[in-house]
UniProtKB/TrEMBL annotation:
Locations listed in the record: Cytoplasm
PANTHER family reported in the protein's UniProt record: RIBOSOME-BINDING FACTOR A, CHLOROPLASTIC-RELATED (PTHR33515:SF1)
PROSITE patterns listed in its UniProt record: RBFA
Biased composition (Polar residues): 8-20
Gene it is expressed from: rbfA
Subunit structure: Monomer. Binds 30S ribosomal subunits, but not 50S ribosomal subunits or 70S ribosomes.
This protein's UniProt keywords: Cytoplasm, Ribosome biogenesis
Main subcellular location: cytoplasm
Summary of the function given for this chain in its UniProt record: One of several proteins that assist in the late maturation steps of the functional core of the 30S ribosomal subunit. Associates with free 30S ribosomal subunits (but not with 30S subunits that are part of 70S ribosomes or polysomes). Required for efficient processing of 16S rRNA. May interact with the 5'-terminal helix region of 16S rRNA.
Name used for this protein in its record: Ribosome-binding factor A
Family membership noted in the UniProt record: Belongs to the RbfA family.
NCBIfam families, A to Z: PRK00521.2-5 (NF001802), rbfA (TIGR00082)
Annotated TM spans: none
Species of provenance: Brevundimonas intermedia
Length: 152
């Protein structure tokens, strides 16, 4: 009988461990507080509110990928529209400072290295919404609903 080996790899079929998820949420909450309270002297971050949507940790908890979304990104009238890459770049430039602040707030054996990335899920969701609003797609969905009602 074959023995199934337990994987600790976050990219495996089992997904991230409870430890990774719990530490990621602790780091996310602490980063939100740091970004709200600390004054980071960078022109790209001046007056910008950033939402930390998710923090994914490596299995050894030494590397954290922080997914962020500038407030108002994707809204045409928002001042952050079109500047997302500059904001992400500025956060990555100041990642050592943010890591230091994080180390003071969290009781962890290691404070992970931080890497910031733009959270593309909001763009994907709005793209899907636009597709559902397309009259051709809507007509196709309504036709399917009518067919399923006829079968019942």
């Amino acid at each position: 009988m074959a023995h199934k080996q337990h994987t600790r790899n976050s990219s495996g079929p089992a997904g991230p461990s409870q430890r990774q998820l719990r530490a990621g949420e602790l780091i996310r909450h602490a980063l939100v507080d740091i970004l709200r309270e600390e004054d980071i002297h960078d022109e790209a971050l001046a007056g910008v509110s950033v939402t930390v949507t998710e923090v994914r940790l490596s299995p050894d908890l030494k590397h954290a990928t922080c997914f962020v979304e500038p407030l108002g990104a994707g809204v045409e009238a928002a001042p952050t529209t079109g500047h997302e890459s500059e904001i992400i770049k500025a956060l990555n430039v100041h990642s050592k400072f943010l890591r230091g602040q994080l180390g003071r707030r969290l009781d962890m054996k290691f404070t992970p290295d931080l890497r910031f990335r733009h959270d593309e899920s909001f763009d994907a969701a709005s793209h899907i919404d636009r597709l559902f609003d397309d009259p051709r797609v809507r007509a196709d969905l309504e036709r399917r609903n009518d067919e399923s009602e006829d079968d019942a």
